[in-house]
Write a structure and sequence with these properties.
Belongs to the PIH1 family. The protein has helices at 5-15, 39-48, 54-69, 93-98, and strands at residues 82-88, 112-118, 128-131, 135-139, 144-148, 153-163, 168-175. With 184 residues, the protein is of the alpha+beta class. Among the domains are: 46-74, no CATH class; 82-175, Immunoglobulin-like (Sandwich). Strand 4 and strand 5 form a beta hairpin.
């Protein structure tokens, strides 16, 4: 048998796997859920006050970028609370007095991340807290915060407490790090 370009093309067609059927548009089965969007509502709000000059446009864009840049933004009338993050080391007498332990003053030797969320005017009963490996979400009637964490944590070994004097939520988050010659 002779292999010509025509017979090679036919052989390619025979060996090509069949393409799966692709469902599109109305062929898809109905899930019973309606999908809605609020994009048109946001666009209407922007159309009420369109910028007239390039300076107004740049100012409007800067305000939008500034509001998007804040953690916890866009959650209705609830405010983003003030918060601080500090690292904590577990040190022993050897580390402090004799300086023979492997710890360094750097954050690479820290075991915990302490997050303090100030929530003035709120109570412990109103706080809803969700902690996962990469973020902390705090919701209450007055405040909302979605905080990405700088390091992975172990949520099962972490603790939360409420300081009633300062109305502050204190989270002690156990860092999930592999300890080596740098991190110990």
């Amino acid at each position: 048998m002779e292999f010509t370009p025509a017979t090679m093309n036919q052989l390619v067609q025979l060996l090509r796997p069949p393409e799966p059927e692709v469902l599109q548009g109305e062929d898809l089965p109905s899930t019973g859920f309606d999908i809605t969007s609020n994009r048109d509502k946001v666009a209407v709000a922007e159309e009420k006050n369109p910028p007239k000059t390039i300076e107004e446009y740049e100012e409007q864009v800067a305000k939008e970028l500034d509001s998007v840049g804040h953690v916890g933004v866009g959650l209705g009338d609830r405010k983003c609370p003030e918060y601080t993050m500090n690292y904590q080391q577990s040190v022993s007498a050897e580390d402090v007095y004799l300086q023979i332990g492997p710890k360094t003053p750097g954050s690479a030797s820290c075991e915990n991340l302490i997050v303090r969320v100030k929530m003035p005017g709120d109570k412990k009963e109103n706080v809803d807290l969700n902690v996962d490996k990469t973020s902390v979400t705090v919701d209450s009637s007055q405040y909302s915060l979605k905080l990405p964490l700088p390091h992975g944590i172990d949520p099962d070994c972490s603790k939360a407490s409420w300081d009633t004097d300062t109305e502050t939520l204190v989270l002690t988050l156990k860092l999930d790090r592999e300890f080596d010659f740098v991190n110990f």
